[in-house]
Amino acid sequence: MVHLCYAGTSGSSRPARHAYVLYGTGPLRIGMVATLESYKDQPTLLRAAAMLRRRGLDVRVQLVGSGPQAATLRRLAGQLQLGRSVDFAGTLDRRQVRAAIHSWDVLVHATRAEGMSIAVLEGMATARPIVAGDVHGVRELIADGQTGLLVGESDVEALAAALRKLAAEPDLAERLGEAARDLAERHYSARRMAEAYENFGDKLLN
Known about the structure:
By secondary structure, the chain is an alpha/beta fold. Helices cover about 45% and strands about 15% of the residues. It contains 9 helices and 6 strands; from the N terminus they run H-E-H-E-H-E-H-E-H-E-H-E-H-H-H. The chain has a 6-stranded parallel beta sheet with strand order 3-2-1-4-5-6, with helices on both faces. The longest helix is centred in the C-terminal third of the chain and has 18 residues, at about 170-185. The radius of gyration is 17 Å and the shape is globular.
C-alpha cells in the first residue's frame, strides 16, 4: 500500500483585488514562480503576453526564479518587444514569493512536466486564479473550470485565451480563486499535512 503525504502550505489569507479586477482598468498583472529550466515553459507565457498586448490588452508579467535559461528568456522577451512589461525578479525567499503572488491578478504555471507544485499550492492558498499546464502533477491540484484553468502544453493561443477570459470575467476569476483556496485549506494546509504524517506514522507502528 502506498500512502501519499503532500507538501503543505503554512496558511492562507484573503487577496487584495487589484484595479483591473475591480474596475477593468490598469494592467493585468500575471506572474509565474519556477526555476528557469527548459522543462518549464516560460517561453509560452512570454509569447502569450506578447499576443495579448498586440490584441490591445495591457499585461505585465513577473517571472520569479533563476536558472540556466535566464539569458535565453531575456532574449526572447526582447525579440517579442515586451520591454518593461516583463520583470525578471530572480530568486526570492518564501516571504518575498508570497508578497509577489499577492501583487498578481493571475498566477500562471506553464510547464512541460511537474510533480506536486509548491508554487501552485501557494497560489491556491492566496486565492489567486490559476492558469496552468495540463500535466499530471498539476491535474492532481487543479480541476479545470472549478479550481483553475488548464491549457495544453506549449499552446500559446490557449494560454492567451484563458488569460483573456479571466480578464473579461472577474467574477469567474474570483470564484476560481476562492474554490482553489478552499481546496488548499481542506487538503493541503500545513496542519492537514501534519495530521497526514501523524496518521501515517501511527499506521507504521500498528
